[in-house]
Amino acid sequence: MNMNQKLIFPKIQKVLRTPESSFLNLKDFPYLPRYTEIDNLRIAHIEEGPEDGVKVLLLHGEPTWSYLYRKMIPIFIKAGFRVIVPDLVGCGRSDKPSNTNDYSYLRHVYWMTEWMVKNNFTGLNLFCQDWGSLIGLRMVVNEPERFNTISVGNGGLPTGDENFPFAFEIWKAFSRFSPWFPVDLIVQAGCTTKLSSEELYAYRSPFPDETYQVAVRVFPSFVPNQPNNPESNNNREAWKFFEKWDKPLLTLFSDKDPITAGGAKFFLKRVPGAKNQPHQIIRDAGHFLQEDKGEEIAEILISFINSTSK
Questions:
Q1: Which residue ranges make up each domain of the chain?
Q2: Known active-site residue 287
Q3: 130 given a catalytic annotation
């Protein structure tokens, strides 16, 4: 996507905003949101740690929100990092357009790139997972000078030229057509560890009722899992960009994720910056590796980022 070109999106008719009361007294998550307005939408993010600390940008996927990183945030802060964790539009404490047509892959990339630019974030070390990768890697393409390193966990940049697992087709159909979409149980299904009742509540909290769930339901339908997807060519162009990316890139894929298993190979084969990096398989972790091994991943990222700045 060329951010210099004029992008025209459908006008958003109705926006839902989850009441602040839904987010009170969440387990291990005392962080107050900051808000940035992009196209009359309020995008929430957390920003914690020393103002002069090394910046780490953590991007979540679907159907989670910044709460997913609660095990990692304190470790980064203790290490002196500046931690930035946004909620994607339609998720967490960010605003939620209520119509399916309000969303697209391209529009999510646009929203988050504009959010990053408006906040003038620079010197970023990106960790992205799930849809955080599909969006975050495109943010790097749009504003490469703002990033120092990239780390990808259980994510990718699909074009539809790859072979997708059948598990994804099941997930795609369920998310779009099932009359029941229990966000908390969906997150639990993507973990190897058992979530507490407080943690399950926190994942439900952004969605007071099903009208708030439009974004998290429609995300899978935007994944370029066919070669003629509207964003396939933009992702192919993005891969051409990353085939010249020589800044450090690390992969951290878990061993028990049926959707993204083996996805690290694309980065190892195609990205120069991935050469000779300490790539790891995260053992006994599911799709949401931040839940299962968040503390371990934070320590790996701190070591990786510190080693690249020497």
A1: 15-308
A2: yes
A3: yes
